[in-house]
Design goal:
Rossmann fold; 9% strand; 497 residues; 5 domains; 21 helices; elongated; Glutamyl-tRNA Synthetase, domain 3; binds glutamic acid; Glutamyl-tRNA Synthetase, domain 2; mainly alpha
């Protein structure tokens, strides 16, 4: 780290759509950078060509943009430390691999995969449950530590396939002070001689990651806990290259509500979407997902729950990130979405709701009409897309009635009550066909009949909306208008008597 400025990076590999765990990592980096007035870098770690997925980088950038996390440096954004795609930085890695070899901390290895497999099998038979290419086995393999210098040069000249491996020391304890996990110790025996440069000449994640974090002057490495086991290799690399390692922070795992790490399979079982694009498509409020993700592993230490991205930037402290895994609670996410959605004005919701309705084949002819409906439904849905299901009856007369509600609603005395109500409201002129009058009428009818509110309310609701629950019925009838309301009630009378 050659400057004191906070510089962090989000370093995804473009191997698929950005998932929510990735977005949380990006978010914590973003919050940390903004909190400290530092830089937030996006670096694409695309050295594994076999796992490269077309469109993944665009998806990552898109998702971050949607979530409101602008990066300061990265692809499509010039910066002093570019390029920001590892595939465009290859020469640099080879240079440092060479430096490591010259310093005696890495070596050429010429073994074929069959030879390595053979070594593993042999050791396994001899009772070693986790055989690997390491300080013990390397001296029995074909590499620049066991071959003569001439032979090595000859092989390199000939163009034999080789990889460069890290020479992990025997019996060394590697120390790491992690901002989240505290002091962590690793025994070098547990590590293998990591491949740093592959036979295609490209670096592995480990070498590229360390080189770039150094070259890009990254001050803090903030990433998921699944990378903690790689950290000791990185510490060795920093030491051997003579660089000061960045401060590290390994974020807690995201857990399934059913227990265990939230894997793709577990998420599916729980009906949890894992890709950010799915949340986008489902119509989630980006601020809601961001607020929710911020609290997956962090809290401000008091009972505040709603925090905008700006507020989060102010409040975020790495010291308050927990070590324990954070359970993905779908109910909580819905709750967050409701809060943010209800904060939006009708004007801002209107185009989104309209799109959601149209997606469900509901034609919206009149925006002003939709603007009346939105406030009635917004308290009843968790997601914009749910407006379609909840609000269909505003646009289409019920094709059928909810069986259960009907059973509960339609009794012997119902017919006369409903008919009576229909007759009374038919006397109202268009201009007085308003919620208050419609309610008064209902009260008059039940008072005369000497029955309770529900005796008329429920059957009317079923007749008008098809269902036993919904928004304020009087406002609903007002919005539907006189002739539509009359028609729905008469149809129900006909069909149900
Ligand atoms: N490329 C790694 C990933 O896909 C980056 C891990 C790190 O941040 O060091 O998550």
């Amino acid at each position: 780290m050659s400057s004191n400025k906070v510089r962090v990076r989000f370093a995804p590999s473009p191997t698929g759509w950005l998932h929510i765990g990735g977005l949380r990592t990006a978010l914590y980096n973003y919050l940390f950078a903004r909190h400290h007035g530092g830089d937030f870098v996006l670096r694409i770690e695309d050295t594994d060509q076999k796992r490269y997925v077309e469109g993944a980088e665009a998806d990552i950038i898109n998702s971050m943009k949607w979530a409101g996390m602008e990066y300061d440096e990265g692809p499509a954004k010039q910066g002093p430390f570019g390029p920001y795609r590892q595939s465009e930085r290859s020469e640099m890695y080879a240079k440092y691999a060479k430096q490591l070899i010259e310093g005696g901390h890495a070596y050429y290895a010429f073994d074929t995969s069959e030879e390595i497999e053979e070594m593993r099998e042999r050791l396994q038979k001899a009772g070693n449950s986790n055989p690997k290419y390491d300080a013990i086995t390397r001296m029995g393999m074909t590499n620049s530590l066991t071959l003569s210098e001439d032979e090595v040069n000859e092989r390199l000249k000939r163009g034999d396939d080789y990889v460069v491996r890290l020479k992990v020391p025997a019996n060394e304890t590697i120390h790491l002070d992690d901002m989240v996990r505290g002091h962590v110790k690793f025994e070098s025996e547990g590590l293998d001689d990591q491949v740093l440069l592959k036979s295609d000449g490209l670096p592995t994640y480990h070498l590229a990651n360390v080189v770039d974090d150094h070259e890009m002057q990254i001050s803090h490495v903030i990433r998921g806990e699944e990378w903690l086991s790689s950290a000791p290799k990185h510490v060795l690399l920093y030491n051997y290259l003579g660089w000061e390692p960045p401060v590290m922070a390994h974020l807690p795992l995201i857990m399934s509500p059913a227990g265990g790490k939230l894997s793709k399979r577990k998420a599916e079982e729980q009906g949890i979407m894992v890709n950010v694009r799915d949340y986008m498509q489902a119509g989630y409020e980006p601020e809601a997902l961001v607020n929710f993700l911020a609290y997956l592993g962090w809290s401000p230490g008091d009972d505040r729950e709603i925090m905008s991205l700006d507020q989060l930037c102010k409040e975020f402290e790495m010291e308050r990130v927990s070590k324990a895994g954070a359970v993905f609670n779908t109910k909580k996410l819905s709750w967050y979405n409701e809060q943010y959605m209800r904060e939006r004005s009708v004007e801002s919701l209107l185009p989104d709701v309209k799109a959601a309705l149209e997606k469900a084949d509901i034609e919206v002819k009149d925006d002003a009409h939709l603007a009346q409906i939105i406030p009635l439904l917004v308290e009843r849905v968790s997601l914009v897309s749910e407006f379609a299901d909840q609000g269909r009856f505003f646009f289409e007369a019920p094709a059928e009635y909810d069986e259960k509600s009907l059973k509960k609603a339609w009794k012997e005395e119902t017919l006369s009550l409903v008919t009576n109500y229909l007759n009374r409201i038919s006397e109202l002129d268009e201009a007085s066909f308003k919620a208050a009058a419609l309610k008064e009428t209902l009260e008059a009818v039940i008072a005369e009949a000497g029955v309770g509110f529900g005796k008329l309310m429920l059957p009317l609701r079923v007749a008008v909306t098809g269902s036993g629950s919904g928004p304020d019925l009087f406002l609903t009838m007002e919005i539907l208008g006189k002739s539509e309301t009359q028609s729905r009630i008469s149809i129900a009378i006909e069909r149900l008597s």
